Amino acid sequence: MLSGQQCTVAELAESTGAGVPRTGQTLKRLAGLGLVRRVGRGRWEAVSPRSALSALLHRRRSEAEAMYGEVEAELSGLHRLYRVNQLRSDPEALVGVLSDPEAIARRIDEVNRSVTTHLWTLDKPPYLDVVGQPHFHEREKTTTREWAERGWI
């Protein structure tokens, strides 16, 4: 079909070695996806692969994004429920106190990695540095550059 010639179901079935019923069903599925079209009584032709596949990919991407949005909403609801029950059973969980420098560094890293929109900090005390390494201006510039690339700032 990609040769640009129109064909019938029977002609296509013969050239592919598939049966007429199966070829007819396949053409209907392809037409539903926008990859082929009926051009007359019993005749079919391929649609330009660039336009047909671009439209199909765009449609699938939109479907995936909609599904992702639904999953995100469900995830938010589950997290809220978890947080409410956690605070009900352990009100002190609202505030966490960390004193171990490595635990602090791990928690800061976890928060940085989980940010989806913005993370605001008021200062940069030494506990934001990698444990065991002195603070370097270059590291701060690298971190800022990474955040900018992610669109966080």
UniProtKB/TrEMBL annotation:
Gene3D superfamilies the record matches: Winged helix-like DNA-binding domain superfamily/Winged helix DNA-binding domain
Protein name: Uncharacterized protein
Organism of provenance: Kitasatospora setae (strain ATCC 33774 / DSM 43861 / JCM 3304 / KCC A-0304 / NBRC 14216 / KM-6054)
Highest taxon above the source species: Bacteria
InterPro entries: WH-like_DNA-bd_sf (IPR036388), WH_DNA-bd_sf (IPR036390)
